[in-house]
Design a protein that fits this description.
- By secondary structure, this protein is mainly α.
- It has a single domain, classed as Helix Hairpins (Orthogonal Bundle).
- 71% of the residues lie in helices and 0% in strands.
- Helix 1 crosses helix 2.
- It starts with a helix and ends with a helix.
């Protein structure tokens, strides 16, 4: 689980970079590897500064998939964390219950 978010970011950063390499002009400005990572992280963090935007259909589709995937990934991480907290609380309360 610890590598899920970095892997997600690298996969989409690479995707955005390759889209622009294969179809220059897919984004509002030329996209280097660093620019693709920056775009990916700003989209994942829902900041979206607006300095780089997806223009072509493939770029917009990849961005759309990334946004939906990011929401799902954050939901899964939140669910795991909440589940771990509940499990810990259940263990704590069962170890403190009086023995009859």
């Amino acid at each position: 689980m610890a590598t899920s978010i970095p892997l997600f970011l690298v996969v989409f950063s690479t995707t955005h970079y390759l889209i622009n390499e294969l179809n220059p002009g897919s984004y509002s400005q030329p996209t280097t590897r660093f620019d693709a990572l920056y775009f990916t992280v700003s989209t994942f963090a829902t900041v979206g500064f607006g300095d780089i935007t997806a223009i072509s259909v493939p770029a917009r589709f990849a961005t759309l998939v990334q946004m939906i995937g990011g929401l799902v990934l954050i939901g899964v991480v939140a669910r795991v964390l909440i589940g771990a907290a509940k499990l810990r609380e259940n263990r704590r309360s069962s170890s403190q219950s009086p023995v009859a």
